[in-house]
Design brief:
The model has no long low-confidence stretch (mean pLDDT 83). The radius of gyration is 20 Å and the shape is elongated. It has two domains: 49 residues, Homeodomain-like (Arc Repressor Mutant, subunit A), CATH 1.10.10; 138 residues, Tetracycline Repressor, domain 2 (Orthogonal Bundle). It starts with a helix and ends with a helix. The longest helix is centred in the C-terminal third of the chain and has 27 residues. The chain is mainly alpha-helical.
Length: 201
């Protein structure tokens, strides 16, 4: 029981930090404000974290690790060797939906992460770059599969991969985090319309 209460208190502090950082930004937030928001003393805060940087790092690394898990799960289910364009497009749509929905479900955390991480904080550069590089490599592979299935046959995978990453990131930050949109399915319809037909239709 004591362990459960301890982990709950730690989670309360992390959630309070997300709220305070999201409202004021990392630099203008204090340990006292985080502790007050969590309903604990500053002494209790320091039982779990050495400083506000530590709780911030936990928030960012948790978000990046969660994104990585979503992408890897989607990538592993991608039909390598598929020749069916409809099935391939369905998998692309499902993957992008999962990523956008992750941002929706973690909107407050994303607001904290991307408020300060762009340009990326040096502490997270290695992890962030590793995730992006792996995403790009695997996305290139997925686009090669899509080309073989007759989808996006005129787009080089090396060009298409960063375009998609940039577009998904932009859509997530601007529409889901910034404008607090919850209609991920509608956003996906727009996104897939652009993928399928561009802006010319």
């Amino acid at each position: 029981m004591a362990r459960k209460l301890t982990s709950r208190k730690r989670a309360d502090i992390v959630n309070a930090a997300i709220s305070v950082f999201g409202r004021k930004g990392f630099r203008d937030s204090s340990v006292k404000e985080i502790a007050d928001t969590a309903g604990v003393s500053t002494a209790t805060f320091y039982r779990y974290f050495r400083c506000k940087d530590d709780v911030y790092e936990e928030i960012v690394m948790g978000f990046l690790t969660g994104y990585e898990a979503i992408w890897q799960k989607s990538y592993r289910s991608f039909p390598i060797g598929a020749r069916d364009a409809t099935k391939t497009l369905g998998m692309v749509s499902d993957t992008l939906f999962s990523i956008l929905d992750y941002f929706r479900a973690n909107r407050d955390v994303a607001k904290v992460v991307f408020r300060r991480i762009v340009p990326i904080d040096e502490r997270f550069a290695e992890k962030g770059e590793a995730i992006i590089n792996e995403t790009l490599r695997q996305l290139e592979e997925a686009l090669s599969v899509a080309r073989a299935a007759g989808v996006a046959t005129r787009i080089e995978p090396k060009v298409g991969a960063p375009i998609i990453v940039g577009a998904v990131f932009g859509l997530a930050i601007e529409s889901i985090v910034g404008h607090k949109r919850k209609d991920v399915a509608v956003l996906m319809e727009h996104f897939m319309e652009i993928i399928l037909h561009g802006f010319s239709r």
